[in-house]
Structures are given as C-alpha cells and as structure tokens.
Description:
alpha/beta; 15 helices
Amino acid sequence: MTESRHALIIANDRYVDQGLKKLRAPAQDAAALAGVLEDPQIGEFKVQVVHNARADEMRRSIQRFFKDRRRDDTLLLHFSCHGLKSESGELYFAAGDTEPQLLDATAISSQFVRGCMSRTMAGRTVLFLDCCYGGAFSRGASARASGDVNVLESFQTEKEPGGQGWAVITASDSMEYAFEGPELAENSAPRPSVFTHAVVEGLKSGEADRDGDGEVRLMELYDFVYERVREENPNQTPKRTVEMRGDPWLAHSRRGRLKIVAVPSPPALQEAMNSSEVIKRQNTVLLWLKKRLQNPELPIAEGARQHLEEVAHNDIPEVADLASDALSEIHLAPSPDHLDFGLLPKGAPARKKSVTMQGPPLARHCVAQPTQSWLQVDPTPSGLEVHVDTAAEGHLSGDIVLKGVADEALIHVEAVVDPRIEPAPLAGPTDQEPEPRPPGPRTDTTIIQPPTPPPSIPEPSSTPPPGSVPGRKEPRTSRLARALAPAGTALVLAGTAAITAITAIQAAVSAVYERSKQGVHGNIEDNIHHHGVLASLTVCLITGALALVVGALARHDLRRRRERYTTQAAGTTQALTSIAKGLAIPALVLAVLADIAYVVGSRYW
C-alpha cells in the first residue's frame, strides 16, 4: 500500500462581523506554508487551501479531508484564523460569516474537528493552530483574550484514535495572543505570523532536522518552532499534545552536510600531535592520521578528518600543509559530473545513467538531493544511479546536490523530452536479455525505486564491429569465430615457428656435412648461407615470439571478458593457446641454441 500525504490549510482574514478584528497574516501564512508543504523535495504533500470560507464550506472541507483515508496516510490540518471561546468555555474557529453570538451555527467547534480526527482511519494526523484567541463578545466589542482558553484540553479524548494517533501544536496557550509580528498593530505590512513563519523556515531550510538524518520529524519541528517563537516574542509560548505512536517525518531536510558521530583519535596520536618536535608531528600526520582517514569504518575516518582539520587550522605551515593535502583526498568527486540523456520520447520508461564516486570510503559517503521532481536518484555499491522521469516534457535541466561530511558537489543533468516522438517498442526476450516487465506504480518514499528500463533503447558501450547491424543480435557461429580468432592465429604462428625451426636444423646439418667434405678449403659461413639456415632461424624467432604474444592476449581477453565466451569457446581458446605455447617455446629454444652454435662454431670451421 502506497503512503499518501495530504494537507488542508484554512486561512481566514476577512470577516463579515465588524467586531472581529481583521487579521493580516493568514493569507501570507497559507501561501508560504502551502509552498513548502507541496514542494516534492521537502514535504511531498498534496495541499488544499480554503481561504475566507463560510462556516458550512469549512465544515464540508474538513469532514471531506478526513473521510476515506487509509492507515498509511499522513494528514496535516492548519488553522490560521480567530479562535473564540464560548461562555461555556468551548473553543471555536471563526469562519468568514461567523457571528460571535451564534457560534454553534456560524463557527467551527473544536469538538467537530476532534470528532473528524477521531473517526478517520489515517495513520497520522497533525493539527497546527495559529490562532488569536478571544472570549465570546457582542457586535462592536474589540476582540481580546478573556480567561483561559485551554486549547490543548479541547482536543484530549478518552477514545482511542482511529489511526495511529494525532498531535496538536498550538501557537499560543491560555490568554496569550498568537502574535502576527512584533506587536498587534493595525497597519503593519502583511507578513506571516511568528509561529507559521518559524514552521516554514524550519521545513524550508532544514534547520529543524536536529539529528541530521535527512528528515524533519514532528518533535524536531516543535522544538525548533518553540525556540524560534520564544526568541522572537517571549510573550508567546507554543504548546503541544501528542497521542501518537512514533515520531512521524514531516519533510525531507535540505540542511547542510551529512553528519557522522566521530571516534576521536587515540590518546597516543593526540599526544604525538601535541609534541614540540615538528618532525614527530609531521610523521604522525603522514603515517597515522592519514591512514585513519582512509579507514572503511566511517566514525574512525571522521574522527581523523576532524583532527586533521584542527591541525590544518592551528599548526605551523610545515605541518598544516601536510594536513590540508591529506584532507584534499576526501573531497566529493563524482564521475561523471555532467549527464546528458539526449532526446527522449515522452512517456517512455525512465532512463538511467550511473555515476561513480571516487576516493576513500569517507569521500564516497554522501546524501543526494535532486533539485527537480523529474530527477530520481538511487544509491549503488559504487555510487549513484540517476533516472529521468519522462512524464515531464521540453528541455529539462537540473542538478543533483551531493552533501558529504566535508563539502558539497553538483551533478548537472540535462534531457530533452519530446512528446512528438513515439516510444520505441519493447524488445523481445533473447538468451542475453531478460524479458522486460511493465513499470509498477510509483511510491512516495524518500528514495524511489523505479522499474528496470527495458532494453528497447540501449546505451552502446562500444563501437559495433564492422559489418554489424545496430540492434540486431550477432549470430552464434559468428560470435564463436570472433572469440576463437586470436587463439587460432597464435596456433598458426606457433606451427610456422616449429616448422621453420625443423627446416633450419635440417639445413644446418646439411651445411655441416657439406663443410666436412670440403676439407681445409671449405668455409662454414658459405655453406650456412647457401642452405638458408639463417633465414629460417629468423622466421622461427619472429613467428615464435608473435605466437606467444598473441596467445597471451587471447588468454587475457578470456579472463577479462569471460561473459562474451560460451563454455565451448572458452575451452577451445584455452586448448589452442596451450598447444601454441607448447609449439612456440621449443621452437624458440632450438632457434636460439642454433644461433649460439653458429656464432661460437663459425670461428673454428
């Protein structure tokens, strides 16, 4: 079941009743909060905004919002309006047509909202209340806080929630106002309220991600908002009540770099780096801290990095430069850092390209954050796999921000999606290509796992062989012949070397026999040249050496690209190269011995 995330923002800043003070912030609150919640790189919510609606419209929107939800759903309801307390102490939310003396008929009671929250089957419900609270008042009276509102008590219930639970976070409590700025002035320029401004800031900047895990969770956001609101206005105190199992995530974080809990350097290394001997400190940097920086255990490597940074900033240049050089090895180095997917048909299966992360483990450890919704990134053992969603169209240009412990890097991605191009038909199954499966539904998770793209639009890894037809599978017999060609060539060369070696030996024997019959007037060199012994030995040496070289190349290709060889081809290649080696080496040995005998014996003959 796919998780679904929905947000309803209710903002009222215009009222028919003149006694209700006009609010400046709600319109700005709605726009700012909706923008950050529906951002696919932050909130991933489907957002609905209800602005200056009548009470009956608000009730319909709220009930419809909570109806027909599933346990995997996350719901967020935000009120930015007047909060009114009846004479009996019940809390109401003011609509555009609210009459303070007819709250039951013209306002939204907290009991109604609480009932909708209690009946929904959504797994998680979060309610934000950014309201100015006041007492029930008659027409013409000014809106002001009157007595305790007890906002959170209005949403406490003994009934077990329908889903996993809810949380209520309110901008203020009891007699406090939800301030819209430094003061409650009538003519200030429009701006978000202190509370909602803090919510938007914490989500948008990622500063609310206190533990640096890449997600902003509910309690982290509350802590951030509480501190920010109290800094801005000590007279306003956000409060919360939680009836929920777990701490749900509300947004992806865009905060700075990845954090790793570091293991500090051992006391012996710290003592060595505190030594007054410069050479000792240099050796410690070069030998020990640099080695720990390469450690596959990331906490150890991070501890060495922090120690090296301290040295680079505080030690003398002779030592600091060594530390800086060591730190340069862990910068993020994606390869390639520019991906061009070229021209793609609209609606085609997602295309993918791989990016390799270079350097030691600490340099390869990072988080990837696409800047565009059509970009998707999956981690791989060697780096990243980048996908382009072809549902978008036109010239697409975006970046993937890589954030590591030490720095950031960018991978620029471009593609052109043309709706006029028909997607290529899916290729049928072969003995090398599995039959593609149709893509499944997309899931709204942190890292989307798209379906494997079919091989209908292949990315060639090398230039096709001459005479081959692109896209057509090479016949099996042709592939077998191409695989065996180097081994066969080595065998032919080795055979030639062996034959010429035997021919040279026979010619040398004939030359020696003829010289022995000539007596003192004979010359062995003339006999050798006459029978062509040297020419045969030269051919033997050349062909024997070539046979060994070609055979070695054939065996190297077999080891390096074993997937190109069938079992029969691999066995035949090994047999042919072994025979070639067995023929070439003896031939070369005989040729070399014959040459030595000629050089040594010619002076005596």
